[in-house]
Design a protein that fits this description.
One of its GO terms (molecular function) is protein phosphatase 1 binding. This is PPR3E phosphatase. InterPro entries: CBM21_dom (IPR005036), CBM21_dom_sf (IPR038175), PP1_regulatory_subunit_3 (IPR050782). Pfam families: CBM_21. It comes from Columbina picui (Picui ground-dove). This protein is mainly β. The chain has a single domain, classed as Sandwich (Immunoglobulin-like). It is about 5% helix and about 45% strand. The chain has 1 helix and 10 strands, in the order βαβββββββββ. The strands form 2 sheets. Strands 1, 4, 5, 8, 9 and 10 form a 6-stranded antiparallel beta sheet that branches. The radius of gyration is 21 Å and the shape is globular. The N and C termini lie far apart (about 45 Å). The mean pLDDT is about 85.
């Protein structure tokens, strides 16, 4: 089975106290992530500074020797606070994540009204470590672990 990506940060920062205030201060914050077979799915919350805005996620699987960037899509019917918008993303990890111990790092970029804001986890980037999944246990013969009896 493919490796499981395990966040090295709380995977739901949006559920922590003071999240809305952090969005107001920094303009952009990661809300949550979830590893799936197709890749890493997540959501970003941004302060609604202008109608036109672009949110993207820049990521690497090789410690920034190379990187890719994917756009995040606006999610209508988002937060009811009227101050923020939600964007969703999917990082398609594909064959690169099939390495024995992949490490994924990413940061979120928010471009609005001629300015650019980043959420890079306070300078540490958001990092996920790959670990091999345990193969599913095969059904065993109930007698396979029994004592051998001598007559």
């Amino acid at each position: 089975p493919p490796p499981l990506l395990e966040p090295l940060f709380p995977p739901q920062p949006g559920a922590s106290p003071g999240f809305a205030e952090r969005v107001r201060q920094h303009k952009v914050r990661l809300e949550w992530v979830r590893a799936e077979p197709a890749g890493l799915r997540g959501a970003v919350r941004v302060l609604n500074l202008a109608y036109e805005k672009a949110v993207s996620v820049r990521y690497t699987l090789n410690r920034w020797a190379s990187c890719a960037e994917v756009p995040a899509a606006y999610q209508p019917g988002g937060p009811a606070d009227g101050l923020t918008d939600r964007f969703a993303f999917l990082l398609p990890l594909g064959a690169a994540a099939a390495a024995a111990e992949p490490t994924l790092e990413f940061a979120v970029r928010y471009r609005v009204a001629g300015a650019e804001y980043w959420d890079n986890n306070e300078g540490a980037n958001y990092r996920l470590r790959g670990r091999q999944r345990c193969p599913p246990a095969s059904p065993q013969d109930p007698d396979s672990s029994a004592w051998i009896h001598f007559i």
